[in-house]
From TrEMBL:
The keyword Mitochondrion does not apply. SUPFAM superfamilies: CBS-domain pair, Clc chloride channel. Signal peptide: none annotated. Keywords: CBS domain, Chloride, Endosome, Ion transport, Membrane, Transmembrane, Transmembrane helix, Transport. Its main location: membrane. Residues 617-681, 714-771 form the CBS domain. This is Chloride channel protein. SMART domains: CBS. One of its GO terms (molecular function) is voltage-gated chloride channel activity. GO terms for cellular component: early endosome; endosome membrane; Golgi apparatus; plasma membrane; synaptic vesicle. The chain crosses the membrane at residues 95-116, 176-201, 222-244, 250-266, 278-302, 352-371, 391-408, 458-479, 485-503, 515-536, 548-567. CDD domains: CBS_pair_voltage-gated_CLC_euk_bac, ClC_3_like.
Length: 777
């Protein structure tokens, strides 16, 4: 029934499209909004107006439904106090839902953080005081020097428990084997649970979230089973030591929470467009609980994920992100949920001359990001097109075994990704026992010092760790386990940045009188901060992979608390994006969307082609005519035969086969549900009954069965373009209005139809890609 009003209400939605000269008046064929519709369906029909799996929602229809619902509530609120209270509760329900999403996502993220930290430490040993304590909590009360803090008597390695000693070759081999055993066990459990109970729980989830937010339906992707299995297997996958992170999958977890909680509120349960507003806010919550960055999370959702992001969603997103961050901190105050994940306090400010190495890190991040995307997509294609894809458990176990085998001897690959990044961001103090701080001490100052043997050893280990991380991450991302890319990308950049930072530090120490350093770096001064280079490198590599810009800089600021380092971060991030874009326009998430064939129209992709709408529509020149329904003259049996003989998602309705004058558009699903409902609930509806889409019923005939009026399910104002509309304008209409289909006319006569799939296939042909890679309509 809401379709009666769509024709009169398209002005607001067309203003959103932002096209000058585009007609703001849309109505039915006769140019007026109908005032009377004969509709025998006195009660709402179950399933009418809903969507099938792997279909795109009609944004225009959903927004019109919500306006009708809101108008009805507003009008009734003037009649009684109860109705007024209902209006107030309806307005408040969005904030209440955001509160629940923040609480649920924060609680789950806190549990994941605690469990992953404990299980990661479990690979190295166990706490004698209580096996449920991780290494940090087990040694929390040990009052020894900083150097001996990690060797508290309460924590025992597996070799100490089995052999009674931790010194010698045999205990080392024993710890090595136990490390590999736990890594294989955790990875096996993760991939088995995903394959058996929730196949949608694998991967990052962000490409699918972007596709869903653009209007695509993937049933079960945000369901309760996916949430349960992803939460469990994310802990297992991270704890196994694979080169992956939990930050991307936490966005998926938060969106699952939001989708489940939406069913508690009628406004969001019955409207797909309103639900996607909540999912956009949930994406911000996911980044907030991953990094403790509420502002960066909202900007990430706005910049990278969301398709439709109104102003009210912006404020609700920030509110939910704050609730989630503080919930996480309350649950796990000593873990990675503290307000700043990688707190830095550098002793020396950066100098303008250092912008050159910062930009160099940006170039490295852009090069690595572009090469990583190409290599990862190539590996994923091999996985899909060969027998390798038929053995996901074997693949995961082989990669886990290889990762554990190579990682254990090197302390920088053995530690978790977040611990490695924290170590690389660290600025050395006088009492720091880290190998990265193995300088030759000169006095009691923090001035630049010559590198000692321990530092040189650490640099060799970091160089090997960099090569290993860059290689193993390519084959790890995309396996059938939950896998994020934020932490591995940041780890690669942080290693490269630390190596460059130490090199610059030693160059300044031995050449402080050179032109490059003279005037700002004198002898005995603390000039270069290697930890800052690690931070800039981490941002550069993450930006090269994801093509994030402003949101990435804000996330890095919230991660480290370093407000004064925004300029170096921005310089490296923008350089990284420019270099990566020069080698390939797609980020990693867009590349995986295209690899999986999802119907996603990328807003950043430009159309440089002079084709017209007539060149893209179906049917093409020389093809059979378009399958249509007439507003009168067809029987129920003929309509059912037409539906059974075709697989189209909808049918244009015309005045007659001869005139082909457009009346409206009706969806296949709505037709099937309405005819089935009429046969069950209305007397006399048989196959010979005439189907009527016109406003007034034809004169009754005593011999004929009663007609079936279906004008109420028809869209009286389908979006149309003329046959000479340029394709770039047509694509913009699809992007900005989120259309499923658009009809092509010539002087009011129907010529064809353009679907979202047709647009994507045409864009693939322009880009010399396989048009049949678009899997779903």
């Amino acid at each position: 029934r809401y379709s009666q009003k769509i024709g009169c209400e398209h002005q607001v939605l067309q203003c959103k499209a932002g096209f000058e000269g585009y007609s703001s008046r849309r109505a039915s064929t006769n140019g007026i909004c109908p005032t009377h519709i004969v509709d025998p369906l006195e009660e709402p029909v179950p399933g009418l107006g809903t969507y099938e799996d792997f279909n795109t929602i009609d944004w225009v229809r959903e927004k019109s439904k919500d306006r009708d619902r809101h108008r009805e509530i507003t009008n009734k609120s003037r009649e009684s106090t109860v109705a007024l209270l209902h209006r107030i509760s309806d307005a408040f329900s969005g904030w209440l839902l955001m509160l629940l999403v923040g609480l649920m996502a924060g609680a789950l993220a806190g549990g994941i953080d605690i469990a992953a930290h404990w299980m990661t430490d479990l690979k190295g040993g166990v706490c004698l005081v209580g096996f449920w304590f991780n290494h940090e909590h087990c040694c929390w009360t040990y009052n020894e020097t900083f150097q001996e803090r990690d060797r508290c008597p309460q924590w025992k390695s597996w070799a100490e428990l089995i052999t009674g000693t931790s010194e010698g070759a045999f205990p080392y081999i024993m710890d090595y084997l136990m490390y590999i055993f736990w890594a294989l066990l955790f990875s096996f459990l993760a991939v088995t649970l995903v394959r058996a109970f929730a196949p949608y729980a694998c991967g990052s989830g962000i490409p699918e979230i972007k596709t869903i937010l653009s209007g695509f339906i993937i049933r079960g992707y945000l369901g309760k089973w996916t949430l349960i299995i992803k939460t469990i297997t994310l802990v297992l996958a991270v704890s196994s030591g694979l080169s992956l992170g939990k930050e991307g999958p936490l966005v998926h977890v938060a969106c699952c929470c939001a989708n489940i909680l939406c069913h508690l509120f009628t406004k969001y349960r019955k409207n797909e467009a309103k639900r996607r507003e909540v999912l956009s806010a949930a994406a911000a919550v996911g980044v907030s609980v991953a990094f403790g960055a509420p502002i960066g999370g909202v900007l990430f959702s706005l910049e990278e994920v969301s398709y439709y992001f109104p102003l009210k969603t912006l404020w609700r997103s920030f509110f939910a992100a704050l609730v989630a961050a503080f919930t996480l901190r309350s649950i796990n105050p000593f873990g990675n949920s503290r307000l700043v994940l990688f707190y830095v306090e550098f002793h020396a400010p950066w100098h303008l001359v250092e912008l050159a190495p910062f930009i160099l890190l940006g170039i490295f991040g852009g090069l690595w990001g572009a090469l990583f995307i190409k290599a990862n997509i190539a590996w994923c294609r091999i996985r899909k097109t060969t027998r390798l894809g038929h053995y996901p458990i074997t693949e995961v176990l082989v990669v886990a075994a290889l990762t554990a085998l190579v990682s254990y001897p090197n302390s920088y690959t053995r530690m978790s990704g977040s611990e490695l990044i924290s170590e690389l961001f660290n600025d050395c103090s006088l009492l720091d026992s880290s190998q990265l701080c193995g300088y030759v001490q000169v006095g009691n100052s923090l001035a630049d010092r010559p590198a000692g043997p321990e530092l040189y050893t650490a640099l060799w280990q970091l160089a090997l760790a960099l090569i290993f991380k860059m290689t193993i991450t390519v084959i790890t991302f995309g396996m059938k386990v939950p896998s994020g890319l934020f932490i591995p990308s940041m780890a690669v950049g942080a290693i490269a940045g630390r190596l460059l930072g130490v090199g610059m530090e030693q160059l300044a120490y031995y050449n402080h009188d050179s032109i490059l350093f003279k005037g700002w770096c004198s002898a005995g001064a603390d000039c270069i901060t290697p930890g800052l280079y690690a931070m800039v490198g981490a941002a550069a590599c993450l930006g090269g992979v994801t093509r994030m810009t402003v949101s990435l800089v804000v996330i890095m600021f919230e991660l480290t608390g370093g407000l004064e380092y925004i300029v170096p971060l921005m310089a490296a991030t923008m350089t990284s994006k420019w270099v990566a874009d020069a080698l390939g326009r797609e980020g990693i998430y867009e590349a995986h969307i295209r690899l999986n064939g999802y119907p996603f129209l990328e807003a950043k992709e430009e159309i440089e082609h002079n084709s017209l709408a007539v060149d893209v529509m179906t049917p093409r020149r020389g093809d059979p005519a378009l399958t249509v329904l007439t507003q009168e003259g067809m029987t129920v049996g003929e309509v059912e035969s037409l539906i059974e003989s075709t697989r189209f998602s909808g049918f244009p309705v015309v005045v007659s086969q001869e005139s082909q004058r457009l009346v409206g558009f009706v969806l296949r699903r709505d037709l099937l549900i309405s005819i089935d409902n009429a046969r069950k609930r209305q007397d006399g509806i048989v196959s010979a009954s005439q189907v009527v889409f016109s406003e007034h019923l034809p004169p009754p005939s005593p011999e004929a069965p009663p007609p079936l009026p279906l004008r109420g399910i028809m869209d009286l104002s389908p979006f149309t373009v003329t046959d000479h509309t340029p394709i770039d304008i047509t694509v913009d209409i699809f992007r900005k209005l989120g259309l499923r289909q658009c009809l092509v006319t010539h002087n009011g006569k129907l010529l064809g139809i353009i679907t979202k799939k047709d647009v994507l296939k045409h864009m693939a042909q322009i880009a010399n890609r396989d048009p049949d890679s678009i899997l779903f309509n």
